[in-house]
Amino acid sequence: MAWEIRYTDTALKQLRGMDRSAARRILDYMDQRIARGANPRIFGKALSGPTGLWRYRVGNYRVICRIREEKCLILAVRIGHRKEVYRNVNRNLGF
């Protein structure tokens, strides 16, 4: 089963703000490993709390996603360096 990966405007802006090699690694990881897998949860880890968000580790960067099982959709909501990506994640996403 192939998964569709979409990026929010915020996630795209964050991708554009990082260096090209890191952005390319993140996009390749999401397209080649996550989108093609049968279960995207085996590659990630659930964030603690009632957020329903998952994170994927790509080197020193993290991709925060929401998985919508019924639509086979993975929505990337935040992308950033591991030191910064978790700051205010609940407040900024409306939780």
Structure, described:
The chain is an alpha+beta fold. It has one domain: RelE-like (YaeB-like fold). Helices cover 28% and strands 31% of the residues. The chain has three helices and five strands; from the N terminus they run βααββββα. A five-stranded mixed sheet has the order 1-5-4-3-2. Strand 3 and strand 4 form a beta hairpin. The longest helix is centred in the N-terminal third of the chain and has 15 residues. It starts with a strand and ends with a helix. The model has no long low-confidence stretch (mean pLDDT 91).
Keywords:
95 residues, alpha+beta, YaeB-like fold, 3 helices, globular
Summarize the structure.
This protein is an alpha+beta fold and 95 residues long. It is built from 3 helices and 5 strands; from the N terminus they run E-H-H-E-E-E-E-H.
Topology:
Blueprint: E1 4-7, H1 9-16, H2 20-34, E2 45-46, E3 53-58, E4 61-68, E5 73-81, H3 89-92
Parallel strand pairs: 1-5
Antiparallel strand pairs: 2-3, 3-4, 4-5
Total count of helical runs of at least 4 residues: 3
What is the CA-CA span between the terminal residues? Answer: 30 Å
Shape type: globular
Could you give the order of strands across the largest sheet? 1-5-4-3-2
Strand content: 25-35%
Taken together, the total number of domains comes to 1
Averaging pLDDT over every residue, what do you get? Answer: 91
Helical/strand content category: alpha+beta
Low-confidence stretches: none
Largest β-sheet summary: 5 strands, mixed
User: Could you state the order of secondary-structure elements as H and E?
Assistant: EHHEEEEH
Q: What is the CATH topology?
A: YaeB-like fold
CATH architecture: 2-Layer Sandwich
The CATH H-level homologous superfamily:
RelE-like
Helix content: 25-40%
Determine and state the CATH class.
Answer: Alpha Beta
